[in-house]
């Protein structure tokens, strides 16, 4: 599949879509206390795990604001994809060809998500994957560069709870560790909600350790990564 942004051609957007892009806000500074900062917790379902080739099939997101999950602020879209074939990933997330064929136009769905996101920082579990997949989808469909910062809860959890001895664990491992009651998994919206519940636990613990802003979490994570790299040498 050839992408227009790889061969120098901008995506074809109508006037209304361009106006919506131009009206998007900037990115928050991340200096607010965690309780005062609005966060968007993101989960993507994709055609596979190759960030250079696979496509975003579904976007699920939920908002954390005022120190709580705002169930009235949730986002869910399935994206229409041409010639979508059944693959191993369908066995996990269950998004088959019929659901994809009935999905939303990718450009419109991604614009809807950007407006939902606003200037908020993003949280995800194994965030680098979601960040690369989302950035690629935005560039391909909208010619838009993703600038919003992410925090990876898969890094933050072992930083804050080393006693759990879960160094490379998945979301299910942390759900089990904290005894969270999750009704559904491997659905973008359900996974975003489970990730948001984990985030609230981590934020509460971070505040007790003197980390009370997105910027403070980023700074502590940067030091943690340096130590992890040094220990692996």
From TrEMBL:
<keyword id="KW-0269">Exonuclease</keyword>
<dbReference type="GO" id="GO:0006260">
    <property type="term" value="P:DNA replication"/>
</dbReference>
<dbReference type="InterPro" id="IPR013520">
    <property type="entry name" value="Ribonucl_H"/>
</dbReference>
<dbReference type="Pfam" id="PF00929">
    <property type="entry name" value="RNase_T"/>
</dbReference>
<keyword id="KW-0378">Hydrolase</keyword>
<feature type="domain" description="Exonuclease">
    <location>
        <begin position="38"/>
        <end position="208"/>
    </location>
</feature>
<dbReference type="GO" id="GO:0005829">
    <property type="term" value="C:cytosol"/>
</dbReference>
<dbReference type="GO" id="GO:0003677">
    <property type="term" value="F:DNA binding"/>
</dbReference>
<dbReference type="InterPro" id="IPR006054">
    <property type="entry name" value="DnaQ"/>
</dbReference>
<keyword id="KW-0540">Nuclease</keyword>
<dbReference type="InterPro" id="IPR036397">
    <property type="entry name" value="RNaseH_sf"/>
</dbReference>
<dbReference type="GO" id="GO:0003887">
    <property type="term" value="F:DNA-directed DNA polymerase activity"/>
</dbReference>
<dbReference type="GO" id="GO:0008408">
    <property type="term" value="F:3'-5' exonuclease activity"/>
</dbReference>
<dbReference type="InterPro" id="IPR012337">
    <property type="entry name" value="RNaseH-like_sf"/>
</dbReference>
<protein>
    <recommendedName>
        <fullName>DNA-directed DNA polymerase</fullName>
        <ecNumber>2.7.7.7</ecNumber>
    </recommendedName>
</protein>
């Amino acid at each position: 599949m050839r992408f227009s942004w790889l061969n120098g051609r901008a995506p074809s957007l109508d006037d209304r879509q361009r106006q919506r892009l131009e009206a998007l806000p900037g990115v928050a500074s991340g200096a607010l206390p965690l309780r005062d900062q609005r966060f968007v917790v993101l989960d993507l379902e994709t055609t596979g795990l190759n960030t250079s080739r696979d496509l975003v099939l579904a976007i699920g997101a939920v908002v954390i604001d005022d120190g709580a999950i705002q169930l009235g602020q949730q986002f869910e879209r399935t994206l229409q994809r041409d010639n979508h074939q059944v693959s191993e990933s369908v066995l996990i997330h269950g998004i088959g060809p019929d659901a994809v064929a009935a999905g939303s136009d990718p450009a419109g769905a991604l614009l809807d998500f950007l407006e939902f996101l606003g200037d908020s920082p993003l949280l995800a579990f194994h965030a680098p994957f979601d960040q690369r997949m989302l950035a690629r989808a935005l560039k391909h469909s909208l010619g838009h560069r993703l600038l919003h910062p992410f925090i990876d809860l898969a890094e933050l959890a072992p930083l804050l709870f080393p006693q759990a001895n879960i160094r490379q664990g998945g979301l299910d491992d942390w759900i089990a560790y904290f005894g969270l009651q999750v009704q559904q998994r491997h659905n973008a919206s359900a996974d975003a909600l489970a990730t948001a519940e984990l985030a609230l636990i981590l934020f509460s613990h971070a505040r007790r350790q003197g980390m009370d802003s997105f910027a403070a979490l980023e700074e502590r994570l940067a030091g943690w990564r340096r130590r992890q790299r040094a220990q692996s040498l």
